[in-house]
Amino acid sequence: MSIQTLAIDIGGSGVKVLVLDEAGVPLTERARLDTPQPSTPQAILEVIHTLTATQGTFDRVSVGFPGVVRRGVVYTAANLDGTWLGFNLATALSASFNKPVRVINDADMQGLGAIASNGVELVITLGTGFGSGLFLDGRLVPNLELGHHAFRKSETYEEQLGRAALDAVGKKRWNRRLGRAIVSLENLFNYDMLYIGGGNTDRIEIELPPNVKIVPNISGLLGGIALWRS
Ligand code: BGC
User: Fold this and answer.
1) Alpha-helix runs per DSSP H in 140-200
2) What local confidence, expressed as pLDDT, does residue 229 receive?
């Protein structure tokens, strides 16, 4: 009997779930609900349980969380309620599901679902926040937090390119900023490939260099299988 993994992607604006087989192939239709407000651990756990009820059976759980996560514990959550800090998400979910649970940063999970495991690969996600993940030959450097790093005009990447910035300055200026961010990241990381994911990739209008690829938003969930590789 093949092992089935429930993949959960917690985001600042939506929570998504899907069940994957051992090869990482989706077995269910992706289900999504808006992130509740206030986005407390309790409220998000309730949404996760509502969504999971649509997904049938599974043996283990992978979670992508929009903040720094170490050993299942949340250290930062810039776009969620402040009560997340110090919350042990892995323990809470494994107690309620009675299944093994692994939790990782959302952009790291997205990267695991997108990379070719070849050389230096950088992933950025454009959604409510600005996520980032760095890989060398498929090995993750966990919790790279480029989003809160200085970018330009005394603002961070997230302040310049997150959802609030897109809404405030519009698509044209946001695209110009994205072009500048790509140059800046290429100078910093000299990556072999940059992957761009997240819900706002459909707003991209600039021409991308050959070593930059847009990845489908579903890779945020597909990466859930890689968390269980040794
Ligand atoms: C968080 C990152 C996260 C990104 C995308 C940022 O605000 O600090 O950890 O990956 O948003 O959700």
Assistant:
1) 157-161, 163-189
2) 87
Mean pLDDT for the chain? 97
3-class DSSP assignment, residue 75: coil
Q: Is 197 a pocket residue for ligand 1 (Cβ < 6 Å)?
A: no
Cα–Cα dist 65/89, whole Å:
9
Count of Cβ atoms closer than 10 Å to residue 228 Cβ: 16
Nearest CA to ligand 1 atom 11: 129
Distance separating alpha carbons of residues 28 and 95, to the nearest angstrom: 24
pLDDT tens column, 98-125: 999 999 999 999 999 999 999 999 999 9
- Choice from 80, 128, 130, 159 to test ligand 1 binding pocket (greatest atom count within 8 A of CB): 130
Domains of the chain: 5-106+220-228 (3.30.420.40), 115-214 (3.30.420.40)
Question: Rounded to the nearest whole angstrom, what is the distance from the C-alpha of residue 130 to the centroid of ligand 1?
Answer: 6
What pLDDT, on a 0 to 100 scale, did the predictor assign at position 57?
A: 96
Distance in Å, CA 188 to ligand 1 centroid: 19
Residue among 135, 136, 167, 162 nearest 147 (CA):
162
Residue range 130-163, pLDDT digits in tens: 999 999 999 999 999 999 999 999 999 999 999 9
